[in-house]
From TrEMBL:
<keyword id="KW-1133">Transmembrane helix</keyword>
<feature type="signal peptide">
    <location>
        <begin position="1"/>
        <end position="17"/>
    </location>
</feature>
<keyword id="KW-0677">Repeat</keyword>
<dbReference type="InterPro" id="IPR001611">
    <property type="entry name" value="Leu-rich_rpt"/>
</dbReference>
<keyword id="KW-0433">Leucine-rich repeat</keyword>
<feature type="transmembrane region" description="Helical">
    <location>
        <begin position="588"/>
        <end position="611"/>
    </location>
</feature>
<protein>
    <recommendedName>
        <fullName>Leucine-rich repeat-containing N-terminal plant-type domain-containing protein</fullName>
    </recommendedName>
</protein>
<dbReference type="InterPro" id="IPR013210">
    <property type="entry name" value="LRR_N_plant-typ"/>
</dbReference>
<dbReference type="Pfam" id="PF00560">
    <property type="entry name" value="LRR_1"/>
</dbReference>
<keyword id="KW-0675">Receptor</keyword>
<keyword id="KW-0732">Signal</keyword>
<dbReference type="InterPro" id="IPR003591">
    <property type="entry name" value="Leu-rich_rpt_typical-subtyp"/>
</dbReference>
<dbReference type="Pfam" id="PF08263">
    <property type="entry name" value="LRRNT_2"/>
</dbReference>
<keyword id="KW-0325">Glycoprotein</keyword>
<keyword id="KW-0472">Membrane</keyword>
<dbReference type="InterPro" id="IPR032675">
    <property type="entry name" value="LRR_dom_sf"/>
</dbReference>
<comment type="similarity">
    <text>Belongs to the RLP family.</text>
</comment>
Length: 612
């Protein structure tokens, strides 16, 4: 009997201990078992001690102040690997589980939502594989937010998602999920945010989206959806952000969209949408970002866009818009990005953007950071007032018919990183003031009618990595200043009228990947060393006077100076008398080869006499 009693004590001791102290031991045991499935290379979980009575002081653990049960486990960004073990199922009061930005692998633990108190699951930014377990959402308890973003999950979005009516936020973005959207997805009525972007989802976007009457964010970007934008999308009255870009959606903008008056961001770029942009777009006065790029919209840009006075970004590029750029855009005083490139816009260069008629429009200058009007049919003179756009980071007016000279006000663009004025009809010289654009990383002026020298002030643009000046009428030498631009990677000076020799210091440009000086009038020896040891022949051709191994033309050797013999000089004559200009002695100049020939002839003559 004694032995039997001892056996029962040993067997049931864990359960007795559990009943004595249920507050701590289940949590400690569960977390220690969970830790056993992890690899912790930086010992971030060193404080997790299996002998501890309470886990409340452990790193990443938060307890309820009254019950002392674990309610939050936050182990984000700790470089943890391994799998998500079943030990977590013992942490019965857990409300927040956040394991984002680690290296966890394996599959998602299906039973997580059995923890009836669990409200937040964030497993984003790991290496999880497999499918999303359907059972997670059939009995989802108190679950409000779930994120499996940036993993390698596959399969379909489970149909059971719509049965979890407590959900407020769902993020399955940046995985490899495929198939069609569940038909009932829009009936999770409490959803405020849904992000399924950057997956392989396909099929049509089902109608019924208006049932998400609380939705603030809908992001389906970067999938393979076809068909039309849901006609009832305008029923999402409180929607703040709609992103359907990067799909294969077709048709026109649905009329109901005019009711999205609370929307701050609409992104529909890179689809197959068509038709004219309706004038009611100007009624969406809360818009801060409007992206319709990469579609086949046509007709004129509506004047009503000027009513969008909160607008910060307007991208209408890569469409078929015609007509002029409406001057009303100057009313968008907060705009920082304006991209209308690759359309068929005509008329004078949009001077109003630079020369406003009102003080209100003048205020917009301080915010504009990106201006891209390239690849249109704009004409007119390049505005001298460009310098007032002092916050520009990118200015691209290439492939138009802009004429005139580059203004000296270019010096004020000291924050501009990318400047492209190529493929226009600009003339005159490159102004010395270009040196004031000290932040330039890429300068493109090719295919214009620029003349004069490359200004030495270019050396002040110390961040320059790309310099393209080809197909102009530039003259003078390649300046030594280029060799001081230590970040240069790409240089094209071809098809100009440059002359002189190349500075040998160019070999110090250690990052150089491309250097084209073909079809100029350069001469002398190509620099030896660095990139120039492997420069292709095509990059130096068309310079007849250049020499070096690359052009298969050896440079002429240096000839020794001739010896001057003065027959009238004597060893005892005064130091400078024999060379005095008053004496006018005629010197005899013989080269070394002539002396050798004379010596050889003398030897032959002596030999003949000796034989005779």
């Amino acid at each position: 009997m004694i032995l039997k009693a001892l056996f029962l004590i040993v067997v049931f001791a864990p359960f007795l201990a559990h009943s004595v102290d249920p507050v701590f031991n289940d949590d400690v045991l569960g977390l220690i078992v969970f830790k056993a499935g992890l690899v912790d290379p930086e010992s971030k979980l060193a404080s997790w001690n299996e002998d501890a009575e309470s886990p409340c002081s452990w790193d990443g653990v938060k307890c309820d102040p009254l019950s002392h049960r674990v309610i939050e486990l936050a182990l984000d960004g700790l470089s943890l690997s391994g799998h998500i073990g079943r030990g977590l199922l013992r942490v019965q009061s857990l409300q927040v589980l956040s394991l984002s930005n680690n290296r966890l692998n394996g599959t998602i633990l299906p039973g997580l939502t059995r923890l009836g108190t669990l409200q937040v699951i964030d497993l984003s930014g790991n290496n999880l594989t497999g499918s999303i377990p359907g059972e997670m959402f059939r009995q989802c308890g108190s679950l409000r937010s779930v994120s499996f973003a940036r993993n390698s999950l596959t399969g379909r979005i489970p149909d059971s998602l719509s049965s979890c009516q407590t959900l407020v936020a769902v993020n399955f973005s940046s995985n490899q999920l495929s198939g069609e959207l569940p038909l009932g997805i829009w009936y999770t009525r409490g959803l405020q945010s849904i992000d399924l972007s950057d997956n392989w989802l396909e099929g049509t976007i089902p109608e019924g989206i208006q049932n998400l009457y609380d939705a603030r964010t809908v992001n389906l970007r970067g999938n393979r959806f076809t068909g039309w934008i849901p006609k009832d999308v305008g029923g999402c009255y409180v929607l703040k952000s709609l992103d359907l870009s990067g799909n294969f959606l077709s048709g026109t903008l649905p009329e109901s969209m005019r009711r999205l008056v609370s929307c701050t961001s609409i992104r529909l770029g890179r689809n197959l949408l068509t038709g004219e942009v309706p004038t009611w777009i100007g009624g969406l006065t809360s818009l801060e970002s409007l992206d319709l790029s990469g579609n086949t919209f046509f007709g004129r840009i509506p004047e009503s866009v000027g009513n969008l006075q909160q607008l910060k970004e307007l991208n209408l590029s890569m469409n078929h818009f015609t007509g002029i750029l409406p001057g009303s855009i100057a009313n968008c005083i907060d705009i920082s990005v304006l991209d209308v490139s690759q359309n068929m816009l005509t008329g004078d260069f949009p001077i109003r953007v630079f020369r406003p008629d009102s003080a209100v429009a003048a205020d917009s200058y301080g915010n504009l950071e990106v201006l891209d009007v390239s690849s249109n049919a704009f004409s007119g003179e390049f505005p001298a007032s460009i310098g007032t756009l002092s916050n520009l980071r990118l200015l691209n007016v290439s492939a138009n018919s802009i004429f005139g000279s580059i203004p000296t006000s270019i010096r004020a663009l000291n924050r501009t990183r990318f400047l492209d004025l190529s493929k226009n009809k600009l003339n005159g010289t490159i102004p010395h003031e270009i040196g004031g654009a000290v932040s330039l990383e890429e300068l493109r002026l090719e295919k214009n009618f620029l003349s004069g020298k490359i200004p030495t002030e270019i050396e002040k643009c110390s961040s320059l990595t790309s310099l393209i000046l080809s197909d102009n009428n530039l003259t003078g030498p390649v300046p030594l200043a280029l060799s001081k631009l230590s970040n240069l990677e790409y240089v094209d000076l071809s098809s100009n009228h440059l002359s002189g020799s190349l500075p040998k210091e160019l070999t110090n440009l250690s990052h150089l990947l491309y250097f084209n000086i073909s079809h100029n009038n350069l001469e002398g020896e190509l620099p030896v060393g660095g990139f120039f040891n492997t420069i292709p022949h095509s990059s130096v051709s068309g310079n007849p006077a250049l020499c070096g191994s690359v052009v298969n033309d050896s440079c002429p050797s240096v000839h020794p100076k001739p010896i001057v013999l003065n027959p009238n000089s004597s060893s005892d004559s005064g130091g400078g008398s024999s060379s005095s200009p008053n004496r006018h002695h005629k010197g005899i100049i013989l080269s070394i080869s002539a002396l050798i020939a004379i010596g050889a002839a003398a030897s032959i003559a002596i030999g003949v006499v000796a034989v005779t």
